[in-house]
Amino acid sequence: xxxxxxxxxxxxxxxxxxxxxxxxxxxxxxxxxxxxxxxxxxxxxxxxxxxxxxxxxxxxxxxxxxxxxxxxxxxxxxxxxxxxxxxxxxxxxxxxxxxxxxxxxxxxxxxxxxxxxxxxxxxxxxxxxxxxxxxxxxxxxxxxxxxxxxxxxxxxxxxxxxxxxxxxxxxxxxxxxxxxxxxxxxxxxxxxxxxxxxxxxxxxxxxxxxxxxxxxxxxxxxxxxxxxxxxxxxxxxxxxxxxxxxxxxxxxxxxxxxxxxxxxxxxxxxxxxxxxxxxxxxxxxxxxxxxxxxxxxxxxxxxxxxxxxxxxxxxxxxxxxxxxxxxxxxxxxxxxxxxxxxxxxxxxxxxxxxxxxxxxxxxxxxxxxxxxxxxxxxxxxxxxxxxxxxxxxxxxxxxxxxxxxxxxxxxxxxxxxxxxxxxxxxxxxxxxxxxxxxxxxxxxxxxxxxxxxxxxxxxxxxxxxxxxxxxxxxxxxxxxxxxxxxxxxxxxx
Length: 493
Fold this sequence. Notes:
By secondary structure, the chain is mainly beta. It folds into four domains: 71 residues, no CATH class; 51 residues, no CATH class; 198 residues, no CATH class; 101 residues, no CATH class. Helices cover 7% and strands 43% of the residues. A hairpin with a 4-residue loop joins strand 13 and strand 14.
């Protein structure tokens, strides 16, 4: 007799078996099996609110207490909507339905937002609109007349680095929108020259301005001429840089009022000089400043020359010519001068000692019948004593000016200062010569040129320096040796 070993199952197999037994009723619960008995009242029957699993529907027909299993020829089913459509006649009294359902109603329409509700709601919708590209009408610019130049250049040399030069000039005139007239001269470079005074009409290079005008009103900004009003008193002619407004206002039956307001900076200082002419000498005659300065630059077009009370005309073919940069006037053969002639010259010259401001207002009232006029003119020009331009006054210099009082001859301070070398400025080096230990000599050596000088013209034999040459950026003076202790120059720093 053979002994047989008992069959042994691993523990994992036994565990899986029991889990399978417990899983069967769980699956049965998830199958959603349904059973209903419903009385028939129509040709169609909605079985459930959920969709029926296809192939799971079983129908039993009841007629007078007798049961009959229905086949597929007796009905049709829409499983998504869970609806049964009957094909038999007559209909049974009631039916018993056995089926399984999905957890969803596939015949229903699902949506995140109800379109019908959105259409019926009173919503303030602002749809996004892509703006159209802007269009520009350049037809109005066709009324403008303009010309100018744009220059680009490169300069270099054996004693300088490469420099890019640029200049822009534009002249414009014409009409803008709403019949506004414009005239302008615009430039971005500063020309250190003036026109020659040998013609009656001057071509001015240094005027930069914009003028706008409409009807009887005008606005000017930039360089312009501040003319005297049409009256006997307070006559003037100034080259100014600032803003000016002029307008005419109609006052009904009373008349009209023409008014102008000016706020500007003076470009020069006014001077009136009587010339002592020499018999048989037509010039040139030197024009001087208010303090006797001999080297001044006259503003082009500001001079007025009278000969025995008669206003002369500028030009080589007329009465006189003038060198604005040298400050000299020469009379032509058409206008012979002698010691008996009374010649008066009024002009403006550049003076950068102090900032000078101008405020002016002119008013003219004209009656409606133009039989009488009333004028009121106000003019004010003053130095800003706290804003020197070509020198900085320290506390010692200010104290010196306060102490001299009316003694202008004592109002002098040393006019030299130490600065680092600048090739764009006229600079000097300090040396000694013939026993004189403080002598300034013009120099372009970066190692030794460390002084900037300001010279004052004192007159003949009152200084130790004389004018040597003129450059674009200023004048160069040189030292001359005194003779017998008497200075031989005209200027002193």
